[in-house]
Each structure stands twice: as structure tokens, then as C-alpha cells.
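Support request from a user on the community tier.

User writes: "When I paste my C-alpha cells into the form, the page sometimes reloads and wipes my input. The last time it worked, I copied everything first. Here is what I submitted, just in case something in the input itself triggers the reload:"
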């Protein structure tokens, strides 16, 4: 299972019902019944709740191979240690989880241990899912048991020695796994706690936004401080630094728009985050997305050094001029002469934290390979950026990325052709 996309409809008839609805929305896994519609029977209600929560956990993203049956597994998950293959989690008795009980499923979610006692690799985010309540785990189980069974054998993992020795996971778990359901912070609001429950648990946001070490583990003290996503060649920015993706100076609306629609007046999601929005976050109800925004905005700020200044003076005039000419020819029509863009369709470049953050990887990737924001319920016809890898050589890509990182008083640093060349060889065109 992986991270997430949902949307929700807030229905209010009179003031009393509206207030009651807001309170109910903050309850884990709540799904409403429209006025005038007969309440669903408990079984159907539980399955519907489980489907919503499974979307919040983005289960479909890992457990459904491209072009394959939903939840039948088989999707390769590249890691620094070799390929893992997501298992079949349809209710097939022979190859799926058809013979699992709700207790077996909760044990897997809560402890990271399969039905037969096998320790799971942490690519399955049980370190986050351990925070999921038993009630919500049971609802997800009920939903998965209701989907069509698919008879498809699980593909064996392809991990290098010694990483294929599961006994080593005992050490990993000792260092990096803390078991336990989410415990509410009584000093915070109900809304904040709901956001924390979703972000830290089913959403498993820290899994990408926290750097991992050579053992595939991360320190709690470095949560949300950003890092490269292994084997994907994307940089997940820090959510605690306002010089990267820190949200301290964002409005709640800009955050919720980005999470739920994939675009806002501040930024647009691409790459792995676009998949999360598409598969998971667009399907969350408005109250849950706002709760996540409230929690994320309140993350501790960890900007210790002084804000950087423009590095334009460090760039060769020839590089700046080359970058300016390429920008004028290829970029200004969408992003404007001054880099202000035309949000939310065409994001700004001037003052954009995702352009100026310490790692230039994402900016280089976008110029080389382009990309589209996800098509979502709130942004069904997204605008995209074309690739330029077939038009621009490494020197030209480096020049234009350097230009946008330092022009208009942007505080980024220059990019070298060697950095572009490295990414070009790693990314399929």
C-alpha cells in the first residue's frame, strides 16, 4: 500500500446539520449519508469507509501493476537493494489474502508481520500504518475482502545478498520501528489531531519527505526535512523549511488546493507527488484535506541559517545570456517575462521555493522530461510542460535552469552540465 488521493462532498441543509456535519467529518474514516437517503446497512457502511481509508493510504498505487488488475500486485518497486514486488491483496484464497482474518490484517498493519509470521520489508510502510486504529484497519480489511478476487501468484523479490536475508530486518526494526497506534496530542485541536493521524499514519508522508540512510532507515529527529526518493531520481523537499516546501507562509487554501487539486496559486505537483494526488488525495473529503493542511502548516520550522541571497553574480555572463535567450524562446509564453507565470494553470518561477531549493534535481528533470499535473476532480484539464531533452543539450539545459534559479532575485545556485548529463542518463526519455 502507499500514499494517497480523495474528494468529498459537504452537505448542509440547516445550521444545526452543518455544525453536526463538521464535527462528524473530523472523526476518523467518517462517510456521510445524504439527507433523504436511507442509511446504509453496517456492512456496506464499513466497506465504504474502508474504501475511503484505502484511498487515503494510497494502497492501489503499489499493489496494482500498470495495465494489471486492481490490487493484484506485481508492481516492481526499485530500491537501492534490488527490486521488491508488491503482493496480491485481493481476496483470492490461493494467491491473495482470501484466507486472512481481520486479526491477521491488523497484525500486518500494526506490527509489519505477515499472516505466516514473515517480517515485511519496510517498503510496505508499516512504520506509519502502525498508527492506524483497529477500527480503521478492520474497515480497510472489509473493503479489500469485497473487491473481485484475482488469482495471480506473487512474484519473488529480487534483492541482493545480504539484503535478501529477512533476519536482518530484526535489526532494522530495533533501530527504526516504533509500534503503536496514534495517540492524540491533548494540547492541540481535534482538527490538528485528525491531520496528524492522516499525515503520520495512512498518508505516510514522512516516507518520502525524510532522507533515508544506507540501511533504508530514517531518524525521527529528521522527519519531513526532505531527501532524495531512492531509485526515482526525484527530490522530496523539506516540509519544515520555508526555503523549500515549508508551508509556514502559505495560506490554508493554497495548501489544500495543492493537495486536493494538484495545483494552487503557489505551486503545482509533478512526479511522485502527482501520483499521490491522482491516486489518493483528490478523493479525500474537504475536511480531511484541511486538517492535513493545518497539521502540515504547523510543523516545526527548522531554518537555522540566514536566508540565502541571489547567486547571479557567481554565474558567468555568457551562461546567464544563454539561459536568458533559451528562456525567452521556450519558456516566457507560459511563465512570463518576469517569471510570474499565470497561476494556477502556469506556475510562477520567480520566488518559487521549488525552483530555488538546494537540490536542482526536480528543475532539471522538468526541463528534460516535462510533465503534467494530475487530472483531478477539481482540476480535470491540467496544463502540462513539454520535454526539452530532444531540443536542448546538457550545456543549454544547465544554462536555462541556472537562469531561472538565480534570475528575478531568486536565491538558487548554478547548475552544471555534468549534473544534467547524470540525470539524462538515469531518466528514460
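"...and here is what came back when it finally went through:"
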Amino acid at each position: 500500500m502507499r500514499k494517497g488521493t480523495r474528494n468529498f462532498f459537504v452537505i448542509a441543509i440547516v445550521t444545526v446539520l452543518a455544525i453536526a456535519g463538521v464535527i462528524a467529518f473530523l472523526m476518523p474514516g467518517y462517510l456521510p449519508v445524504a439527507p433523504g437517503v436511507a442509511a446504509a446497512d453496517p456492512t456496506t457502511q464499513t466497506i465504504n469507509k474502508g474504501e475511503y481509508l484505502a484511498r487515503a493510504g494510497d494502497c492501489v498505487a503499489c499493489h496494482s501493476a500498470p495495465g494489471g488488475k486492481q490490487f493484484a500486485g506485481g508492481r516492481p518497486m526499485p530500491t537501492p537493494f534490488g527490486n521488491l514486488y508488491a503482493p496480491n491483496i485481493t481476496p483470492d484464497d490461493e494467491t491473495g489474502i482470501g484466507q486472512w482474518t481481520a486479526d491477521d490484517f491488523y497484525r500486518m498493519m500494526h506490527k509489519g508481520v505477515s499472516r505466516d509470521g514473515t517480517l515485511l520489508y519496510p517498503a510496505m510502510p508499516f512504520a506509519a500504518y502502525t498508527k492506524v486504529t483497529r477500527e480503521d484497519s478492520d474497515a480497510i480489511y472489509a473493503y479489500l475482502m469485497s473487491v473481485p478476487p484475482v488469482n495471480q501468484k506473487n512474484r519473488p523479490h529480487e534483492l541482493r545478498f545480504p539484503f535478501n536475508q529477512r533476519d536482518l530486518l530484526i535489526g532494522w526494526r530495533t533501530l527504526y520501528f516504533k509500534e503503536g497506534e496514534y495517540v492524540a496530542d491533548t494540547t492541540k485541536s481535534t482538527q490538528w489531531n485528525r491531520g496528524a493521524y492522516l499525515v503520520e499514519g495512512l498518508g505516510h508522508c514522512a516516507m518520502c519527505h525524510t532522507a533515508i540512510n544506507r540501511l533504508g532507515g530514517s531518524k525521527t529527529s529528521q522527519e519531513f526535512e526532505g531527501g532524495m526518493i531512492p531509485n526515482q531520481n526525484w527530490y522530496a523537499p523539506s516540509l519544515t523549511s520555508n526555503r523549500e516546501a515549508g508551508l509556514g507562509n502559505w495560506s490554508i487554501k493554497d495548501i489544500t488546493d495543492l493537495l486536493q487539486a494538484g495545483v494552487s496559486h503557489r505551486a503545482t505537483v509533478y512526479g511522485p507527488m502527482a501520483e499521490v494526488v491522482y491516486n489518493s488525495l483528490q478523493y479525500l473529503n474537504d475536511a480531511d484535506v484541511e486538517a492535513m493542511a493545518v497539521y502540515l502548516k504547523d510543523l516545526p520550522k527548522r531554518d537555522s541559517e540566514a536566508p540565502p541571497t541571489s547567486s547571479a553574480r557567481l554565474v558567468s555572463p555568457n551562461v546567464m545570456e544563454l539561459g536568458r535567450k533559451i528562456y525567452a524562446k521556450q519558456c516566457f509564453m507560459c511563465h512570463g517575462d518576469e517569471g510570474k507565470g499565470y497561476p494556477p494553470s502556469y506556475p510562477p518561477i520567480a520566488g518559487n521555493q521549488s525552483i530555488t531549493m538546494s537540490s536542482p534535481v526536480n528543475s532539471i528533470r522538468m526541463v528534460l522530461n516535462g510533465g503534467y499535473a494530475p487530472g483531478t476532480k477539481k482540476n480535470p484539464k491540467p496544463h502540462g510542460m513539454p520535454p526539452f531533452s530532444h531540443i536542448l543539450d546538457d550545456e543549454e539545459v544547465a544554462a536555462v535552469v541556472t537562469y531561472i534559479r538565480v534570475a528575478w532575485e531568486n536565491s538558487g545556485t548554478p547548475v552544471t552540465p555534468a549534473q544534467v548529463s547524470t540525470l539524462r542518463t538515469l531518466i528514460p526519455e
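Agent notes: The reload is a front-end session timeout and is unrelated to the input. Confidence is low (pLDDT under 50) at residues 1-39. The longest strand covers residues 76-79. Escalated to web team.
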